[in-house]
Design goal:
- This protein is mostly beta strands and 171 residues long.
- Helix content is 5%, strand content 36%.
- β11 and β12 form a beta hairpin.
- It starts with 11 loop residues before the first strand and ends with a strand.
């Protein structure tokens, strides 16, 4: 089961040994390199550090009562783990996330991109993708006279409205 990390804001963090509420999540810390939540900022009267964090690696399980950890010893300072300290300082936050319906699969190819576009700054046509993309064979006769009308052999693959890949045939 997948759960959006934003749904885990404001839930209790419970101690396995005592069965008591130790803290409550207030903010996710997300690694922008892979969009994984690696920790949560937590708040509560029993915490020694401000801010205090709970690493996802230290969460034993999720239950109806919230996140379950072994004990209050699992809470760390933002300065205890270098990577977490760097990510906390970024204040990276996901905005406008899309929910993907796993039962709906719609693929399409996007082709016939222009090979060149006019650059006012450079006063000439420049490659839209990169200079090694091959021109469409049907448009070779336009290369010298009408380069803005030449299609490329570039492509993107789209899944449920999101670009998931792409490439080009090279010259």
């Amino acid at each position: 089961m997948l759960v959006l990390g934003s749904q885990l804001i404001g839930i209790p963090v419970m101690g396995l040994q005592t069965g008591t509420k130790l803290a409550q999540t207030s903010q996710a810390i997300t690694d922008p390199a892979n969009l994984k939540i690696i920790a949560y900022v937590v708040e509560g009267p029993l915490l020694n550090e401000n801010p205090s964090l709970i690493r996802m690696a230290d969460v034993r399980e999720f239950g109806d009562v919230g996140m379950i950890v072994d004990s209050s010893d699992e809470f760390i300072s933002v300065h205890d783990v270098i990577k977490i300290e760097e990510l906390y300082a970024l204040k990276f936050n996901l905005v406008g996330m899309n929910v993907i319906d796993e039962k709906y699969n719609d693929f399409c190819w996007v082709v016939d991109f222009p090979l060149f576009q006019w650059s006012d700054a450079e006063g000439r046509y420049v490659s839209v993708n990169h200079p090694f993309t091959a021109p469409h064979p049907e448009d070779l006769f336009r290369l010298m006279e009408k380069p803005g009308e030449v299609r490329s052999l570039g492509y993107d693959v789209i899944w449920n409205g999101n670009e998931v890949g792409g490439g080009s045939i090279r010259i």
